[in-house]
Amino acid sequence: MTSTLHPGLGEAARSFLSRTHQLLIDGRMVESDSGRRTDIVDPGTGAVIATAAEASATDVDRAVHAARRAFEGPWSKVTPAERTRMMLRFASLIEDHADELAELECINSGKPLPFCRNGDVVGIAEMLRYMAGWTTKMGGETPNVSMPGEWHAYTLREPVGVVGQIIPWNFPLNMAMWKIAPALATGCTIVMKPSEQTPLTALRLGELALDAGIPAGVLNIVTGFGNPVGAAIAAHPGIDKVAFTGSGETGRRIVQAASGNLKRVSLELGGKSPVIVFPDANLEAAAAGVCSSIFFHAGQICAAGSRLYVHERVFDEVLDGIAKRANAMKMGHGMDAGTQMGPVISRRQLDRVAGYIDQGQQEGATLFAGGQASGEHGYFVQPTVLTGVKPGMRVHDEEIFGPVLCAMSFNDEDLDSIAATANATTYGLAASIWTKDLGRAHKMARRLQAGIVNVNALSSPDATLPYGGYKQSGWGRERGYDAIKLYTEVKAVAINLNN
Ligand code: NAI
Ligand code: MG
């Protein structure tokens, strides 16, 4: 099997890959009940690099019971300050294993190594440290009540309980930590299901959490398919909350499954995020920003700026800048030096994205750059730009989740009407505005229906900033204090001092 591995992989990553990967339940690696295994593929070559255990509903049940025991037992006895220290140790261990984690993330998700090392790994350590700070600061309040007599009233913010977390394949480390860190900070326990395509780094994180002293059963990792593993988590009566990132279709299934015990649900479901470039903008920076947003990680980003609206006076200039960059982009294996864009995750995703590119042209769009896809040795789609795109075309209305930009022009000065065009989507995750006019920037920010608005930028990756969507982009916000709220219940306690 080692012959199929990229030669750039270090010893630690190789040694991890060569292990027999199991499920992490109650602090121990255990075989799955089914005994079945799934191939784990390097999308940059198409080669199998490992196999992972396929959990069953019985395994999920075991994990839920372990999480419940930890929640009611050892984890409930750990003081907030001790939780902080454990989380900080966890963050330090992640940094100690940064190269190994980055290489595993790169070889399994396809994202270029420098992004994995300097973006994902650095980012998850930051996220842990940020959330670790909240453990000692997330108390309740003492409201000034007006009931007759004398009262002492206060609120308690308590952990929601056992949480199920179901994550996708595009950012395996980040998506895991955006969910694990606030759950740990608030005193919840976790049953996590990584994507069946990218379970490796979550398993490694689970081991590092144990090494950091986080008690057995607090973080359980069950690998396997959406059905049965994700479905069993969503439906399980012993789970108090489920947090999901992925497709709208699966999000809807999870909402239905969760209705049995009315567990709390948070969802992050992607988008079709507009980028609006006004003529006074820094056009060079806008073109570069658009490219890094839609082509970085081959467009497999929920907040990717996939609908571009450029004022007609500067449309040609901006589009030429984008096409020049797209055509010059170095595609390749994520571990190869100089790679700017890696593969898409799978043959299925390649076919899906290529299908959109074909269909867009059939529906009347023009191919302005890229357009080719090749699945012979890894799954690669060229950075692609479509012009002449209109509402009603599938490439306009649907999330492609590939390196495909739909570019349109506008000639309007009326901000309400520009916003109406940008808002004409079922999604509402992110939006980006490019202008030097501060008044226009703030006015547009208010008019856009999006959970995240960036001005003269396409992303704002910071642990403090809430992340999530309006409309069908989801329910709730991750990151920031809002994530603490997602993992807590509020209890109002009122004491009549006269009785
Ligand atoms: P998906 O939403 O089906 O998969 C995401 C996670 O949900 C995986 O862990 C999967 O095993 C799990 N899952 C699948 N079916 C489930 C079920 N019935 N119950 C519980 N969990 C279940 O996404 P998929 O099929 O990999 O990708 C399809 C499209 O979804 C992409 O092309 C993209 O448009 C969108 N997507 C959006 C993401 C985002 O970050 N918002 C991430 C991944 C996909
Ligand atoms: Mg699916």
UniProtKB/TrEMBL annotation:
Keyword Cytoplasm annotated: no
Presence of keyword Glycosyltransferase: no
Boundaries of every Aldehyde dehydrogenase domain copy: 30-493
Residues in coiled coil: none
GO molecular function (one): aldehyde dehydrogenase (NAD+) activity
Catalytic machinery residues: E268
InterPro entries, per database record: Ald_DH/histidinol_DH, Ald_DH_C, Ald_DH_CS_CYS, Ald_DH_CS_GLU, Ald_DH_N, Aldehyde_DH_dom
Entry's EC annotation: 1.2.1.3
Keywords from the UniProt entry: Oxidoreductase
Family statement drawn from the similarity comment of this UniProt entry: Belongs to the aldehyde dehydrogenase family.
Name the UniProt record assigns to this protein: Aldehyde dehydrogenase DhaS
Native source organism of the sequence: Paraburkholderia dioscoreae
Gene that produces this protein: dhaS
